Amino acid sequence: MTRARGLAGVALGLLLGACSGGIVPPNGVSRTPPPRTTGRDSYQPPRQNNVPVRQPIPAVPLPPIATVPALGATTAAAAGVVAGPVFASLPISDAQARDALAAFRISCASLVRRTDTSGLTRGSDWQPACDAARSAGDARTFFAQWFETAQVGDGRAFATGYYEPQIHGARERRDGYVPIYGRPSDLVEADLGLFSDDLKGKKIRGRVEKNAFIPYFDRTAIEQGALDGRAPIIAWAADPVELFFLQVQGSGQLRLPDGTVMRVGYDTQNGRSYTGIGALMKARGLLGPGQTSMQGIVQWLHDHPAEGRDIMRENKSYVFFREQQGSPLGALGLPVTPAVSVAADVKFVPLGAPVFLSMDRTDANGLWVAQDTGGAIKGSNRFDTFWGAGDDARATAGGMSARGTAFLLLPIGTIARLNAARGFPAP
Questions:
Q1: How far apart are CA 199 and CA 350, in angstroms?
Q2: Under a CB-based contact definition with an 8 Å cutoff, are residues 86 and 149 in contact?
Q3: Do 309 and 28 meet the contact criterion of CB atoms below 8 Å apart?
Q4: d(CA 410, CA 404)
Q5: Could you report the per-residue pLDDT of 254-306, keeping only the tens digit for each?
Q6: CA 294, CA 272: separation in Å to the nearest integer?
Q7: What percent of the chain has pLDDT over 70?
Q8: Which of 11, 247, 259, 343 would bridge with 384, disulfide CB 3.0–4.6 Å?
Q9: 178 and 282 assigned to the same domain
Q10: pLDDT class for 44, splitting at 50, 70, 90?
């Protein structure tokens, strides 16, 4: 899901990069909303238990290929790419291969037309595999026939998790609820590449005041009313902590008082930098043992509402939403698939490409497809795994923190072409 997330650090919870498909708890126990009594503001959302983090089953990751990566590299091509294991040797189940093939088909139209900012591929490189994918039968045979594995840099991977949260909300204003804003009318996005070739690919957001372009309102100003008359309110959230987590994920579901669901998706962001509050809380000694997961952070914020509000405001980033129909969408504007789609840095992974993760916990292992991005998902071999919605998704994503090795799947011949361009001899 397209997000402004500064997801996960040492654990998704630490940098706050997970989601909940179960309702983020407004604090309590009942899963069934009580009958609504008369009066517009009389409905109170149910209180719900915090779903515990799922404990991982340990695994032994494959070792990376020995290499000396370029320090400070800003793209995969600059970091260096070496051939990985033969695809047929990788421990990928038939089901994983089938699911990855289905997701790859969805990505193909984008792969062949997008400019790959990782420097690894050209759109035409993907066309043969995409053509073959339309009628491919056995998924493992397809990947083995059309792809080679490649290690970027040192190959050492770190993976966290995210999910689609479901929170309590309403379409109309209710006492104690907080607004969910749409795109402000005065928010301006400037493409700096139009002004200088050196700034190509860089954008900033802000607003115009007295003929000057200035930063847009930060989270504190917005919560104090700065958007009055500037942005539509598309819905209302029962709990500011729930809304904060919804913004971290960038999209999710609102459980309305009548039991129906409204889906909201990322529209834009205020241009301010993301700050992961989990890292701040840990550094300040606010989180005890077992509290550094997303679930632990949620509980602390609910237990300390005044201090929690101030901590959340240290993350100046603020996300604006639009109502969305259908499945959650990733950065490609295409549906993302639970346990298949993964977010990555487009400077190191071609968006839409398959990637094999061999990690130190079994649920992160297997074949994924890079179909999303994230504000804190930056750098070589950094991934954020998508788990869908529901309590299971929240339990997995909330504590996902896996380390191991990553191998990209690139069209056969890519590595030889890259090495030839760098003057390296063919293997």
A1: 21
A2: yes
A3: no
A4: 20
A5: 999 999 999 998 899 999 999 989 989 999 999 888 777 777 899 999 999 99
A6: 22
A7: 87
A8: 343
A9: yes
A10: very low
Q: Please spell the DSSP secondary structure of 128-142, one letter per residue.
A: HHHHHHTT--SHHHH
| 182 and 130 within one domain | no
What CATH number has the domain bearing residue 319?
2.40.240.50
Tokens found for residue 140: 């493992």
Q: Domain check: are 178 and 247 in the same one?
A: yes
Same domain, 253 and 132: no
Q: Which helix (H) or strand (E) holds 223?
A: helix 219-223
Strand order in the sheet with 188-191: 188-191, 203-209, 212-215
Q: How far apart, in whole angstroms, are the C-alpha atoms of residue 15 and residue 336? A: 22
Q: What is the DSSP string of 337-372?
A: -TTTEEEE-TTTS-TT-EEEEEESBGGG-EEEEEEE
CA distance linking residue 223 with residue 415, whole number of Å? 50
Reduced DSSP (H G I as helix, E B as strand, rest coil) percent helix, strand, coil of the chain, to 5: 25, 25, 50
The structure tokens listed for 103 are: 């997701």
Specify the pLDDT at position 4. 44
192 and 157 in a common domain: no
Closest of 395, 414, 407 to residue 367, by C-alpha: 407
The first and second tokens of residue 392, run together, are: 């299971």
The domain tally of the chain equals 2
DSSP secondary-structure letter at 376?
A: T
Task: Retrieve residue 183's tokens.
Answer: 């795109």
Burial of 279 (0-12, 13-18, 19+ CB in 10 A): middle
d(C-alpha 415, C-alpha 296), whole Å: 44
Read off the tokens for 26: 């407004």
* pTM for this prediction: 0.75
> 398: domain range?
76-161+330-421
As a whole number, the mean pLDDT across the chain is 86
H or E element at residue 126: helix 123-133
Spatial CA neighbour of 46 closest among 68, 23, 13: 23
> Does 123 lie in the same domain as 265?
no
Q: Report whether 390 contacts 339 (CB < 8 A).
A: no
Residue 299 sits at φ, ψ, to 5 deg, of -60, -45
Q: Which residue has the tokens 């695994």?
A: 59
pLDDT attached to residue 243: 96
The three state secondary structure string of 87-155 is HHHCCCCHHHHHHHHHHHHHHHHHHHHCCCCCCCCCHHHHHHHHHHHCCCCCHHHHHHHHEEEEEECCC
How many residues comprise the chain?
427
Strand 382-386 to 156-162 pairing: parallel
